[in-house]
Design goal:
Length: 399
């Protein structure tokens, strides 16, 4: 039997839920109801219809419709408890530049420590257990952190955590966009918070800075061009037209967040599991990554989100970085690798170099300036212009 708490008791319960979530290490907590997310559904369906999801075949229209209807996810659902955990690295001052090439190839900030899915889910299940203890009954609940059918950003916005930035990330007043999101959907009718309001005003820094032109319009990501997609989700070859624009990014990309004025104010993470020492760190030597066999990859990346790219994908990314650094000898060796994708990515880079070299009368265009010395500005000049990559589709199911 469900308890019937009056409004005052529910307000008190919501305050205790928030205090408990904060004590569990959540920096931001808010509550929203279980009404459908109509605007998120329509925007996401339109984005899917335009091919915005590229090769993420698991992101289907059917999944989006279900995700945006909370009572389809949990019969009897009444409210979401939305949380955000800040991840701006504590070992970097605000606005610090990305790691220099000598330090290694770049790892996106969210992925430097331990896998945030595990970290946030542990906190959220602990919150569910606390709620059950507090109410003295079992609670119907589902926990969502990224990989579930749930519009994480729309839930967080409606629960008051932050507003949508033009780079599509949720911007919060305390942690900027460097915040990872999760939620508990439950049958407890907690009183909702007001949705967050705010906007980017006339700023377009992220659109202007994106190295590949993957933000063709405010609030729209073209995944097929996005370095985050290409280095994490995409399987197979990174299209040769985009390869130089990937620059020194080994895993993920933060450029559209680095330039965001809201991140100048972002508080540093207080989550020990997100510290660089807890995981892969800020940067990895691309030659070492290329040399990893399956066993060393597993051992080095235990509990790390970098495993999302898989052994093959990370080694392919290492080839791309080495190509962009002009490491011809490493590419020549990689062109004889046992892995067909690694081999083909290296051969494509060497082939492109030879082609460009012929056109320019040089012996090898890979000896041209490396990433970080002006390549980004040339990429910016090309913003929105390079040809779309071929629509290679590789499917992979998520939860
Ligand atoms: C697929 C996916 C990707 C794809 C597509 C990205 C995208 N922008 O859609 C790729 C692989 C490219 C990607 C990249 C990244 N991702 Co990602 N990704 C997801 C995932 C799994 C689904 C997102 C999705 O459905 N996209 C489709 C779009 C159309 O929908 P949406 O972003 O969910 O929400 C839109 C609607 O809600 C809509 N909307 C609804 N109402 C309204 C009202 C108004 C007025 C407006 C303007 C908009 C609006 O606007 C939102 C933004 O476009 C979510 C987790 C999840 N389950 O939600 C994480 C998630 C969005 N990713 C996350 C992160 C951290 C990243 C990266 C920063 C990682 C990195 N450093 O490399 C990059 C950022 C790239 C970027 N600029 O977006 C975080 C974002 C946290 C935050 N603060 O926003 C999430 C929420 C995971 C999590 N639980 O923390 N990601
Ligand atoms: S700046 Fe990077 S993460 Fe942002 S949209 Fe462009 S390629 Fe994707
Ligand atoms: S860089 Fe500017 S436009 Fe982009 S998300 Fe930040 S405030 Fe908005």
């Amino acid at each position: 039997m469900r308890e019937s708490l009056d409004r005052a008791a529910l307000i008190q319960l919501a305050a205790e839920v928030k205090a408990t979530a904060r004590a569990l290490g959540c920096d931001l907590v808010g509550i929203t109801d279980a009404a459908p997310f109509d605007e998120a559904r329509e925007r996401t369906l339109a984005w899917l219809a335009r091919g915005g999801a590229a090769g993420m075949a698991w992101l289907t229209a059917e999944r989006v419709r279900r995700a945006c209807d909370p009572t389809a996810l949990l019969p009897g659902a009444r409210s979401f408890i939305a949380v955000g955990v800040g991840y701006r690295p504590a070992d970097e001052p605000r606005g610090a530049p990305p790691p220099a090439a000598e330090e290694g190839a770049q790892v996106a900030r969210y992925a430097r420590g331990r896998d945030y899915h595990d970290v946030l889910k542990r906190k959220l299940w602990a919150l569910v257990r606390w709620l059950e203890g507090r109410l003295g009954r079992s609670v119907a609940a589902r926990v969502f952190v990224d990989d579930g059918p749930c519009p994480d950003r729309a839930v967080a916005q409606r629960a008051g955590l932050g507003f949508f930035g033009k780079n599509t990330n949720l911007l919060t007043r305390t942690h900027g966009s460097y915040v990872l999101l999760g939620s508990v959907l439950t049958d407890v009718p907690l009183p909702p918070d007001p949705p967050a309001v705010g906007d980017c005003g006339s700023c377009t820094r992220c659109l202007d800075a994106c190295p590949t032109g993957a933000l063709p319009a405010p609030y729209v990501v073209d995944s097929a061009r996005c370095i985050s997609y290409l280095t994490i989700e995409h399987r197979g070859l990174i299209p040769e037209a985009l390869r130089p624009l990937v620059g020194d990014h080994l895993f993920g990309c933060d450029v559209c967040q680095e330039v965001c004025p809201w991140n100048r104010l972002a508080a540093a993470t207080r989550e020990p599991a997100f510290a660089s020492e807890a995981g892969a760190g800020r940067a990895l030597d691309p030659a070492a990554v290329l040399a990893w066999d399956e066993a060393s990859y597993r051992q080095r990346l235990r509990g790390s989100p970098l495993k999302r790219a898989k052994h093959q994908g990370l080694r392919r990314n290492a080839v791309v970085v080495l190509a962009n650094r002009g490491a011809v000898a490493a590419l020549q060796a990689a062109a004889r690798d046992a892995d067909p994708v690694v081999r083909a990515q290296a051969a494509a880079a060497l082939g492109a170099a030879e082609g460009e070299g012929k056109a320019e009368g040089a012996s090898c265009a890979l000896l041209a300036p490396s990433a970080g010395d002006g390549r980004k500005s040339s990429a910016r000049r090309q913003h929105g212009r390079p040809a779309r990559p071929p629509g290679t589709v590789y499917s992979e199911s998520r939860d």
